[in-house]
Amino acid sequence: MRYWKIDRRTVLRGLGGACLSLPMLDVMGAESSKFKAPKRFVTMFMPNGVYPDNWNVKGAGMNFEFSPILEPLKAHKDYLSIISNLDNTHASGHVDMTSSFLSGVARKDAKTPSIDQIIAQKIGRDNRVQSLVVGTEPPRGGKIVASTVSWSSKSAMITPELNPQTAFDSMFRDMNTPEAKAAMNRRRSVIDLVLNDAKDLNRKISKADKHKLAEYISGVREVEKRIDNIMKPKSFDDRWMPSTKPTSADLKRPGSQIPKDRNIHMDLLIDLIVLGLWTDTTRVGTLMMGHGFSRKSFTFLDTITDDHHTMSHHKGTEEKARQYTRVAKWHIEKMEKLVSRLKAIPEGNSNLLDNSLVLFGSGMKDGNGHNKKILPIVIAGKAGGNLVPCGHISEEVGTRFSNLHVSVLNAMGVPAKQYGASNGPLKSLKLV
């Protein structure tokens, strides 16, 4: 029997204008196992902390007991590292504790990009979307710094995309149509004008202003790179290709409006992150599950009456603590949805969760008093074999939050000895 072949650059088109590279198939040749699946990184930031008594874990290693809030993750015990005794001592209040989540220190004291963007530069620079940053609510008043945990430079924040359709289009819409090319070329023209004007301005300003302008130009160049990634045809001759592909149902384009239903909105954003990782459209996803000063209503959950921020200031009252616990558990249920989906996607002899590191948590422990000690942190996945899940581990009391960032960078293949306010990597997290 004679077998026919198709080009490795063949893409699927349609589905509301989407375009998607095919996975490595036998009809493309005998190279499907030539490349190792890449590592992926996902962050899920939860605002307002947790009720400590219902988060704290008993037991050590794999012999731990799931606390009431963490109970939804039971089915994934072999993939978890729950880390206790990390202190966010270099930040205070909702705003700083949010901006420090991927930076180790309050953003005003940070000197580098956040770790998701450092990782994206390492593992995602050749992907169509270098880093997908999405969220569920806009900034509140003057608290804009608390709207994101992602920073592309010392002072350039990345505003999360709230609209699922816009996020979908950035990953999957066909950018080869005349209209799309014209729009992209218009953006490139604006960028060229900005950069030319910046060069002229740079000759006339002070040293301090030159530094600020350099930061701004850096951000503009990032946009330029993203446009180039979208516009230029990509060669797959020397890169890994997914071994399975989403169905047409998976690739259904979301509606144009941001869903009012919080469950639907969050689930859509999670599905988009999974699709992005699965198709290798992106390798880094950051989900702001809420603004760092969030007053989101959770009345869609049975018997919940307070907004998130109000219940976090529970003052030890039984009713507010109960509501606070239920909302934290809802966030963990969403983590479980993401983890479960990644785990179900095969990649050769492993699965997508094996090749990912999912970091979930909050920059504060308890909203009541803005407690910043013993942060609620969970890691799921094995980072492509670089990370050995440890169950429940307790670092030394007072361990700096930034030490976690050093370990995460190392697990994702970024050599780092110091980050933020760290004094080394975590001692208990097992890296290979």
Give descriptors for this structure.
13 strands, alpha/beta, 32% helix, Alkaline Phosphatase, subunit A, single chain, 432 residues, 7-stranded mixed sheet
Topology:
Layout: E1 11-14, E2 18-21, E3 40-45, H1 52-55, E4 80-87, H2 93-99, H3 115-123, E5 132-135, H4 164-172, H5 178-202, H6 207-231, H7 262-278, E6 284-288, H8 308-312, H9 318-343, E7 346-347, E8 350-351, E9 356-361, E10 377-380, E11 387-388, E12 391-400, H10 401-411, E13 430-431
Parallel strand pairs: 3-6, 3-9, 4-12, 5-6
Antiparallel strand pairs: 1-2, 4-10, 7-8, 9-10, 11-13
Q: List the domain count as a whole number.
A: 1
Q: Rg to the nearest angstrom?
A: 22 Å
Sequence stretches where pLDDT stays below 50 over 5 or more residues: 1-32
Q: What is the third-level CATH name, the topology? A: Alkaline Phosphatase, subunit A
Task: Return the CATH architecture.
Answer: 3-Layer(aba) Sandwich
Strand-residue proportion: 5-15%
| Fraction of helical residues | 25-40%
Can you say what the CATH homologous superfamily is?
A: Alkaline Phosphatase, subunit A
Order of helices and strands: EEEHEHHEHHHHEHHEEEEEEHE
Number of helices: 10
> Distance N terminus to C terminus?
46 Å
Secondary-structure content class: alpha/beta
Please describe the biggest sheet, giving its number of strands, its sense, and whether it closes into a barrel.
7 strands, mixed
Number of strands: 13
Q: Which strand order does the major sheet show?
A: 5-6-3-9-10-4-12
Shape: globular
Round the mean pLDDT to the nearest integer and report it: 85
